[in-house]
Write a structure and sequence with these properties.
about 170 residues; three-stranded antiparallel beta sheet; 6 helices
Length: about 170
């Protein structure tokens, strides 16, 4: 004879539990947060032999003045520890896509500089990445929903960190 087990998941009047629309909203967002990164990684790995993290590093450098950023600034953009970023930078450096050098204005810092080969890797990887971002996210939304998603994402990002994340210039 099987014993029936009941689990108390949420107490409807408890403010410490998510219920109803709040739970549905959080479940939908949490699912996107779990499913989207592997989908982006898979495409970039297949087409450009890059992780999404590595692509983000190269893309931020390609967009930076003179293709150069302090590693500490790049770590902030990437929401990364310097250790994780240094490991990624070492991989990118070994492929000839990035180089590191002491900051001539303050030797306590290290600069990350995208190479011409790194610029080419970003140019080569971007069309496929854009296609998957459009297919999985942007094309699924109306213009109004896209604007709302941007505004909502910015609000959430500011709630996590006051300084915000990387944003395109211009």
């Amino acid at each position: 004879m099987l014993k029936q087990v009941t689990y108390a998941v949420a107490m409807p009047d408890s403010p410490s539990e998510l219920t109803g629309e709040d739970l549905e909203t959080w479940a939908a967002l949490a699912t996107v947060l779990e499913w989207l990164p592997p989908a982006l990684d898979a495409q970039l790995q297949r087409d450009a032999q890059l992780t999404h993290f590595e692509y983000g590093v190269l893309y931020a450098l390609a967009a930076a003045p003179e293709g150069t950023l302090r590693m500490s600034v790049l770590a902030g953009y990437a929401n990364s520890t310097l250790t994780r970023l240094s490991r990624a930078a070492a991989r990118l450096e070994s492929r000839g896509w990035l180089r590191r050098t002491p900051d001539p204005t303050d030797g306590r810092y290290t600069l990350a500089i995208i190479t011409e080969d790194g610029q080419e890797k970003v140019r080569q990887a971007t069309p496929g990445h854009v296609e998957v971002v459009r297919r999985l996210v942007l094309d699924r939304l109306t213009t109004s929903q896209t604007r709302q998603l941007r505004e909502i994402s910015q609000r959430i990002a500011r709630a996590i960190r006051d300084e915000g994340g990387w944003a395109p210039s211009g």
